[in-house]
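Hi P.,

Sorry for the delay on this. The queue was packed all week, but I finally got your sequence through. Input first:
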Amino acid sequence: MKILVFAASNSRNSINRALLEYAVSNFLLKASPDAEIEFLDLNDYEMPIYSIDREERSGIPPQARDFFTRIGQADALLISFAEHNGFTSTAWKNIFDWMSRINKKIWQGAPMVILAASPGPRGGESVLSAQEAAAPFFNGDVRGRLGIGNWFDVWDCETNTLKRSEDIRALEEVLAQLIKN
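Then the structure:
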């Protein structure tokens, strides 16, 4: 099973990337030791801001085509969305917009689990709700979602682990949905 993993953030110190690395090393690889994990970094996919004029003038950037291809090659997706003022990050939205010009079925039917890590108490609820609601329109199959709020209170920066047993258990449960047949 090939699982594509990325934080929908371009922060070099992304708390969403930290959550994903924790999830992969502590749960996914134990539950599915033969899984092939591919991490993508949004910083490797910087492109001009999408506009129809730019698309008509220059076409779709190769970075958008590459990202779309990698989604299509995956058996499952694990994504952690940064929440910026209740929405996705601009970096992710731009990649998403460019890919939508290749094919509106961006998620290509892959089963997916969506996460969010947030310094606020709601755990990225706004971005998770929006992404879950939109997924079917883009051929997404959301199997589960989890937001971890109050990040800097529940994350141990020295050991790179979640502190609360309820968060650990919830993460393990939602990740199990990703590898179910």
